[in-house]
Amino acid sequence: LSARGARVREATCYRRAPAKADPLNLRTVTMHLESGAIRAVQVMSSESLDALLALVPADRLAQATLLVPHPRIASAASARGLKQVKVTGFGDEALMETLQSIAAS
To answer: What pLDDT is recorded for position 13?
Structure first.
């Protein structure tokens, strides 16, 4: 655009950053994973999976089914030692179908 005479300014509009979690909330989540009260966890990217694993031990996260939208993310989860991984596809409807099948089992 600049080459054609436009004045261009850069504006950062999007940034990925891992969530900061409260230690008490992390202990509660870990406890619910251990007890089976949390049966499924949704992860939308390999980066968010890594951020989650930095907060929650993999052996605890492995207690739940990991729901991912794409096979590439499922492969990343498997490579990190998670065995219960389901590819949901994209969209709310696909996610709800998967959650209903988990609830029924």
So the answer is: 80
Q: Which helix (H) or strand (E) holds 85?
A: strand 85-87
CA–CA separation, 1 vs 31, rounded Å? 54
What does the DSSP 8-state code read for residue 88? -
| Token pair in block for residue 47 | 């980066």
- Does the pTM of the predicted model rise above 0.90? no
* Residue of 15, 25, 41 whose CA lies nearest to 102: 41
Euclidean distance between CA atoms 103 and 105, whole angstroms: 6
Q: Are 63 and 36 in contact (CB under 8 A)?
A: yes
Of residues 45, 50, 40, the one with CA closest to residue 80: 50
Token pair belonging to 79: 């490579």
